[in-house]
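Before a computer can learn anything about folding, someone has to put a protein's shape into writing. The outcome of that step, for a single protein, is printed below:
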Amino acid sequence: MRVLMWHGWLLDGTGSNVYAAKTAGALRAAGHDVVILCQEPRPQAIRSVDGWGTVDGTGVSGIEPTGHPSAAGRLVALRPGIGPVLPVFVLDEYEGFEEVKRFVDLSDQELAVYLDLNVEALAAAAAWHRPEATIVGHLVPAAEIARQALGPRYLAKIHGSDLEYAIRPQQRYRILAGSGAAGARAISGSSSDVLARAVELVPEVRGKTVSIPPGVEVERWRPLPRRQGLELATTLLEADPDLVRGRSDSVDRAVALALGSHDGEALDSLAATYDQWSPDRSSAERLRGLAGVQGPVVGYVGKFIPQKGVDRYLCALALLEPEVRGLVVGFGSQREWLEALVMALDRADQRDLAFLSSRLQVELSAAEARAAAGFASRVTFTGRLDHRYAPAAVAAMDVMVVPSVLEEAFGMVAAEAAAAGVLPLVARHSGLAEVAAALEGAVARPGLFSFEPGPGDTARIVAGVERLLGLGGDERERLGSELSRFVAREWTWERTATRLLEAATREG
């Protein structure tokens, strides 16, 4: 079947990016002919992409083959020309754009130009590909782009950020979402929670919803002994030429200087001095050092932005027993503030912690902060690790904390941790609560993998981690094996892609 997809951003890094890439790849593997419109700057580096090119209102450019091994189907990535501004829901660095603006900050003229250029590109791609099914995401702006370009014959995916960072705050996006939803054949979401929020904000969604959880690459995310996993990740990282673009240890010295002078602007500016999308230059060395650790490892994987609650995780880690190590994997504009938090806790400096509290949540008493002295030796940052490295690194964890304060559509990192046999500890809200409940149900242990969010949640993260570590090694291994089998059975990209295609082609 010929399938057309629209995803207005990259094909890696965030949950929705991964969702688009993996569903497209699964459809290709199943024998479908897939074209995806996206803003991925290096599509030729993605192994599931067979060809790439550009598209605008004049048509599709010549397609360049990637030379990757073929599959039963085909996947072509087309990059629409949209001008110098990339609209996003949450600000971060994006390669190749002069300006990145939040949707809520766009002028009406900027929004109109963005929509028109994408409508022209999608219509041209449809004329070239002649799709039998169309899948677009997010509800804003994708559904309206598809309605104007194609008419009422598409499935629109809701990811959550569209609801909370565009539709909820601004009436113009509620109107846009309603128009796009009215023309959709079906509207999918990763959980019943995100679909309920969509119906609340956009009544036109009602009666069209279908819950389709995302998947996990279970062949990558699997249990491994700690030393084996970290040695594998280390070997792969040492061969990565992109390490030279990553964060160097010299940035830590600049962070220390900025912290010493309480210079928030300096901390912010450091995030632009290295490639956020590459692993740290010392990541292999740091992981090798962690391989010999005998005590428990409690980790975090995700973006370093305020909405993800990484500050809560670090403060909780500081309150745990000294033999508990932290493995922090990710990227984002808040990285240097989090590094500064580790430094301030390491030297138990109350003035530094007070300064950092202007941007971070630091729920620690003076006595607790003093007890955290020496904390830095327990924390390992790696920078961003993509799908080549992250599964092996995550398998080295005993517990993964998912402390997000953002209302999430699902909880992909928790599902990936579970697939790797790692016990997740998840904030019990929105789609995260559904993931936690499913995993707790799989082992018949209600409440085991979740904590109550809100004020005071640092202490509840501590209690949750201590609860999981208190199970003992054999019990944790047994539970991890059960979780891994559950994910392999219930949450795969093949299953997700099949269900999306069924919903996109269903009549009535």
